Amino acid sequence: MTTPNHIDSSTLLKSTPTWLSKIKTSIVYDPTTTEVGSNERKSNDVSLEYASDPAVSETLRLDEREVSHVSSMILATIHHQPTSSLVRDAGTLDDLKFFLDIDMSILAAEETKYDVYAAAIRKEYAHYSELAYCSGRRKVLSGFLRRERIYFSDAFEGSGIEERARSNICREIGSLQASE
Fold first, then answer.
1. pTM of the model
2. 3-class DSSP state for residue 151?
3. 179/109 same-domain check
4. Any residues with CB less than 8 A from the CB of 60 and at least 6 apart, and which?
5. pLDDT tens per residue, the chain (180 residues)?
6. What count of other Cβ atoms lies within 10 Å of the Cβ of residue 149?
7. Structural domain boundaries, residue 33
8. Does residue 149 sit in the same domain as residue 97?
9. Crossing angle, helix 130-146 and helix 111-124, to 10 degrees?
10. Which of 38, 72, 66 is nearest to 51 (CA)?
11. Domain end marker among 76, 103, 130
């Protein structure tokens, strides 16, 4: 994981709802879909079905609030924005911010690791022409740069994480422009 060591041992990551959200976020993934949020909504549906299975809910001991928490985290990955409309309390909002930051942590990886990630994303979208891919990817990355903050949780404050992510994104955008 591309985060500071203190984040790796976080109790938030060890909580059942956060752990389950991370596992279930991309359980349904189709890179050819053009509908925004389709994969996340389908993953959420599978997760809710899974969590409502009596054997699972008894084993994991998930209550209704925790199932809602898992759902909120998965749906928040559609736009990677922690909105208070997705959560019931401030503690859950803090968890959501941290969860989204973990999901986006690859953006702050060291350059070599980020480049491997960027190449893997290109392979994932190999069904697009070079021009279409570069244009679409640049649009997504530029959206992250327009944000005041890429990372939202206190755990991701400082340590140069935000700056490193922005640097990687700018570098990739430059590479995409050169490929067009």
1. 0.74
2. coil
3. yes
4. 16, 20, 51
5. 333 343 444 444 445 555 555 555 566 777 888 888 877 888 878 877 877 777 766 676 667 777 777 777 888 888 888 876 766 655 678 888 888 898 899 999 999 999 999 999 999 999 999 999 999 999 999 999 999 999 998 888 888 999 999 999 999 999 999 987
6. 13
7. 1-103
8. no
9. 130
10. 66
11. 103
CB 21 within 8 A of CB 68: no
Backbone angles phi, psi at 43, to 5 degrees: -60, -40
Distance in angstroms (rounded) separating the CA atoms of residues 180 and 178: 6
Number of domains in the chain: 2
Q: Which of 72, 103, 134 is the last residue of a domain?
A: 103
CA angle 160, 162, 163 (to 5 degrees): 65
Residues 93 and 5 in one domain: yes
Task: Based on DSSP, count helices (H) and strands (E) in the chain, helices before strands.
Answer: 10, 0
